[in-house]
Amino acid sequence: MSYSFTPAATLRDVTLRDGLQLTGKLLDTEQKIATVRELLRLGVQEIELGSMARADLVPPMANTLAVAEALTAEELAHCWIWVATPGHVAKAAKAGITNFQYCLSVSDAHNQANISRSTEASLEALPEAISYAQAVNGRIQLCLATSFTCPFDGQVPESRVLEIANDPRAEGTCDIVICDTLGQAVPAQVASLISNVRANSPQRRIVFHGHDTWGLGVANTLAAIAAGADVVDGALGGLGGCPFAPGASGNTSSEDILFATRPQWLTPERFGELVQISEALLAQLGEPNRSKSAQGARSKAKAFEWVIPSGPRAMDSARS
Known about the structure:
With 320 residues, this protein is of the alpha/beta class. Helix content is 40%, strand content 15%. The chain has 13 helices and ten strands. Strand 8, helix 8 (187-200) and strand 9 form a beta-alpha-beta unit. Helix 1 packs across helix 2 and helix 7 packs parallel to helix 8 (187-200). It is globular, with a radius of gyration of 19 Å.
């Protein structure tokens, strides 16, 4: 019997961008390419490929364009890249990228810390970024970091999020990404903001980006979906965080989101493969696995079909 969570939402895996921002070790280009292809093969429909952030500030993002250039146009159609300026969009477009996530912070203090300009300056530049995206027949999202709380200013008013969501300079964006950057929101708060954005701003896809800092990542994600989010973000093993937001920790785990929502493409066999891919990646990076469902998949409750059988799983058999 299937127990898919309704309404349905699409998972976007953000391991290769937000997931890698705080890691001490780096992934080379070939490893990132392989990760993209494995995720797509298993059924993940959208992936955050990387960032145009300065490599001296965020070293794990240095090879983002090299990864993009190695992927096919069909593969890139599933991938998004983080950008913060029109120049970022233009440069990424030359590498074949057509899906852009234009990020600014609702909190001016965090926008200054994150991308060294005011929120207003980021909004002023948005129409030019939209034009660059449209020139390559691309899509561009409006991504609102610190939509709930800011590490410097504290609570962020819901009215300010709605003000930016309705800013005419965002006309032409295909999605709006609502970010719980610090993982400090609670489900009722998430449901309120997502519902309000859905009802009182231009119609476009709503993406919820959550963190699990206070242990509510999955609960907040489910609340966002129930309130109208079309896409939700997660990272393998709960990896990640923002280097410019003190107090931010790992993303909500992709494994936990998938286990909770049970999209039609997810089978116990594919879930087991995803757990193994995640474990290998985290071991290479020297990072802990924060996914509770991945831990559960390694339990001794053998009668439960989602538990991975003891011994190495025959990957070729599972893929057949």
